[in-house]
Write a structure and sequence with these properties.
- The structure is a single chain.
- This protein is mainly beta and 147 residues long.
- It has two domains: 8-33; 38-84 and 99-138, Immunoglobulin-like (Sandwich), CATH 2.60.40.
- It is 13% helix and 36% strand.
- The chain has one helix spanning 8-26, and strands at 44-48, 52-58, 67-72, 75-82, 101-108, 113-123, 126-133.
- A four-stranded antiparallel β-sheet has the order 1-2-7-6, with no helix packed on it.
- Strand 6 (113-123) and strand 7 (126-133) form a beta hairpin.
Length: 147
């Protein structure tokens, strides 16, 4: 006969994982038969260099004219709308996973930026926003002289 150590917290954790899996499967968009609307939130990356903050956002299927970009109090806001394609007669869809609708993403920037020195480019479905840092917030090196 083998003795097994009783670990109630581990068993409770496994139970929680099983319940999360159950509800996660139930609420999957393809399992709900369209009962719940999907919110479309485009993914983004925020990177920082010595002189700028760079934000890249994946926005496939949008036109540059569909986007609004604004900066207020060092918060970058990107808004837009991805319009759904017109329904075509004679097509029987078996699966629809692409998301449509309006979106708004706001990101607190890691450094103060100069609102007058912003450059945005949109190429191949990727929006890239370069925001120059304010001169006073840039990292400065101070050399110490030895005597």
């Amino acid at each position: 006969m083998q003795i097994t150590r009783y670990r109630p917290l581990r068993d409770l954790s496994l139970f929680g994982d099983q319940m999360n899996g159950l509800f996660g499967d139930f609420l999957r968009p393809d399992a709900t038969l369209g009962l719940f609307d999907q919110n479309w939130t485009p993914p983004l990356d925020v990177a920082e260099t010595e002189t700028a903050v760079v934000v890249k956002v994946e926005l496939p299927g949008l036109e540059a004219s569909d986007l609004d970009i604004s900066i207020k109090d060092d918060v970058l806001t990107i808004q837009g709308e991805k319009k759904s394609e017109k329904e075509e007669k004679g097509r029987n869809f078996h699966r629809m996973e692409r998301s449509y609708g309006s979106f708004s993403r706001s990101v607190a920037l890691p450094s103060e930026v100069d609102g007058e020195k912003v450059k945005a480019t949109y190429t191949n479905g990727v929006l890239e926003v370069h925001l120059e840092k304010k001169e006073e917030t840039r990292k400065r090196e101070i050399k110490v002289e030895l005597e």
